[in-house]
Write a structure and sequence with these properties.
Length: about 270
């Protein structure tokens, strides 16, 4: 298999680096990006840098389209002639539907819409996938198997992509905001910023592992920390009075509304 990538920014570069580590033995890689220095490290690992997007599209069996949504139409016009039925085009551009991809590509090749989140940068991603009717089940399973090495993969209808983006794609921003607030509280209490950050990072990681391994409801895991007349319940009561859960829910719903609007604009 030849895996090609057009657009090697943070996400494109991360996906390509992850696939370099995990793709079947004998796989070959090529890429094009407008900023050549972004490819330097990947070139050292065996990725061939090509001169333009069309060259990558001609070479690749699996083509990762990792440009910004506003650039998708122009790139598709450039590479459409190379998108034959034996190829797979996988787009990570937010808000760009399979229908839009089909119009721009001629609809001959297998089309895949993929939505990652930024922890894919460290091999801990969560991915949503939708496949065009032109994709056989065998091809779909091959793609899912490739990406399962980079994180959790969920196949879902396109109608759920805005919701996935609002909850999971945007989710790291919510989590990092909470982590920053906890670090700020730690500094206020007299810990150094470095110590606060290390403690909060370990806290979040440990809670994630507990949630994964425990069959108990998340509310029960929270209640288990709240001893009668203890300090934790006082802190939790403040969160409840200030509407912490409601604020998070409202943030996800606002992001979902924006995602739906973006899909209509596309």
């Amino acid at each position: 298999m030849v895996i090609g990538c057009i657009g090697c920014g943070n996400m494109g570069g991360a996906l390509l680096a992850g696939l370099l580590r995990s793709a079947p033995q004998g796989s070959r890689f090529c890429a094009y990006t407008r900023t050549p220095e972004r490819l330097a490290q990947l070139e050292a690992q065996g990725v061939r840098r090509l001169q333009n997007a069309l060259e990558v599209a001609k070479e690749a069996d699996l083509l990762l389209l990792c440009v910004k949504p506003a650039q998708v139409a122009a790139v598709l016009r450039e590479i459409a002639e190379a998108l034959t039925e034996d190829k797979v085009l996988l787009s990570v551009a937010a808000g760009i539907s399979l229908e839009v991809l089909a119009r721009g590509s001629g609809g001959r090749c297998c089309l895949v819409r993929c939505m990652p989140d930024t922890p894919a940068l460290v091999g801990k991603g969560v991915f949503a996938f939708a496949f065009s009717a032109s994709c056989s089940r065998e091809r779909a399973e091959t793609i899912l198997a490739l990406f399962r090495n980079l994180g959790l993969c969920f196949e879902m209808p396109e109608s759920q992509f805005a919701a996935f983006s609002a909850l999971i794609g945007a989710g790291p921003a919510y989590v990092f905001a909470m982590m920053q607030a906890l670090c700020q509280a730690g500094v206020t209490l007299g810990f150094s910023h470095e110590s606060s950050r290390k403690m909060v990072q370990a806290l979040v990681e440990g809670c994630a592992v507990m949630a994964e391994k425990s069959p108990e409801h998340l509310a029960r895991l929270k209640d288990n920390v709240c001893s009668p007349h203890g300090l934790t319940i006082d802190g939790v009561n403040v969160l409840d009075r200030r509407g912490f859960s409601g604020i998070l829910i409202d943030a996800v719903l606002a992001a979902n509304a924006r995602g739906l609007a973006m899909e209509k604009e596309a």
